[in-house]
Specification:
The protein is of the alpha+beta class and 290 residues long. Helix content is 17%, strand content 33%. It has one domain (2-289). The strands form 4 sheets. Strands 1-2-3-16-15-17-13-14 form an 8-stranded antiparallel β-sheet, with helices on one face. A 5-stranded antiparallel β-sheet has the order 4-20-5-18-19, with helices on one face. A 5-stranded antiparallel β-sheet has the order 9-8-12-10-11. Helix 1 packs antiparallel against helix 2 (23-31). The protein is globular. The relative contact order is 0.21.
Length: 290
């Protein structure tokens, strides 16, 4: 029954959000053979390989009601950094996804990142081209999740009363509206050529729907013919197919990883260049669900 309800919600939301655009892709997404695992307390994990966007997409989703869980950032920088799954297990989380952009050499965040009153990092100038939003929690228990557009000079204004916040981006959706263009930069033939936005890579995203559910999403990439990866616009479309009202992009590439106690690593991380569940990258922070 959980599998049926998950697919019905996907179908109805995708038709509402994308009937006039990419309808073939939205139907392929909804009609795919989703493997669904119940995680307890209304949470589900789902995985499917879908032929869409003229490519092979390998998509993992964890969906859970925010009111029944505690969601928080887990910060483990430098020598304390670990893979998403190892950090989640060590902290006693039930579900987790990799977090935000970071300095790969020092294993510390390179974007604005605050927990309580402690600011761990500011947004580096090299990240401004893609970091135009924030994800955070208004309350200490992490049940009031917030995703907002926010530029670096607006952090205090937008997030001053939040308990914790992390800058990231690009913003993908707000109020059901997709915020990113199909192509950020095109060549003379109209083909997207922007390396970060338009090329297909592994992607990680987070969003919520109007029913109070949080969605954690990973799209595999760098596995040609098995998980081709998605552009930023295609990532936003997948969020719309899930019926999300608001969504934001997190760190992707080799960092992309999603895990639960029941499934283990659900996606196929790309750092080991094998289409398996073993190629996780060490990261300095995750979003854990408890």
């Amino acid at each position: 029954m959980k599998k049926l309800s998950f697919l019905i919600v996907l179908f109805l939301c995708s038709i509402a959000a994308a009937a006039a655009e990419r309808e073939t892709d939205s139907l392929a997404f909804c009609n795919a053979e989703w493997t669904v695992t119940e995680l307890g307390k209304g949470a589900t994990a789902a995985y499917a390989r879908v032929e869409m966007f003229d490519s092979q997409q390998s998509i993992s989703v964890i969906k859970y009601p925010a009111r029944r869980f505690k969601t928080r950032f887990v910060h483990t920088p430098g020598e304390y950094a670990g893979t998403t799954s190892a950090t989640a297990i060590g902290e006693g989380a039930e579900m987790a996804i990799n977090g935000g952009y970071f300095n790969m050499k020092e294993l510390v965040p390179c974007v604005y990142f605050r927990i309580g009153k402690e600011v761990f990092s500011l947004t580096d100038s090299s990240e401004v081209f893609r970091v135009n939003g924030v994800v955070g929690f208004k309350d200490k228990r992490g049940r009031r999740v917030q995703i907002k557009s926010c530029l670096p000079d607006q952090y205090q204004e937008v997030t001053g009363k939040w308990h914790s916040v992390m800058a990231t981006g690009p913003m993908l959706m707000s109020g059901y509206e997709i915020l990113v263009p199909e192509f950020a930069k095109t060549d003379e033939n109209g083909n997207g050529i922007d390396s970060f936005n338009d090329r297909r890579h592994p992607r990680t995203a987070m969003g919520y729907d109007r029913y109070g559910n949080i969605c954690l999403i990973v799209i595999d990439g760098r596995h040609k013919g098995q998980g081709d990866g998605a552009s930023i616009y295609e990532t936003a479309l997948i969020c719309s197919f899930l019926g999300l009202t608001d969504a934001i992009n997190l760190d992707g590439g080799g960092s992309s990883a999603i895990w639960s106690n029941e499934t283990g690593v659900l996606n196929h991380p790309s750092d080991n260049r094998a289409f398996d569940h073993e190629g996780e990258r060490v990261v300095p922070n995750i979003i854990g669900v408890f």
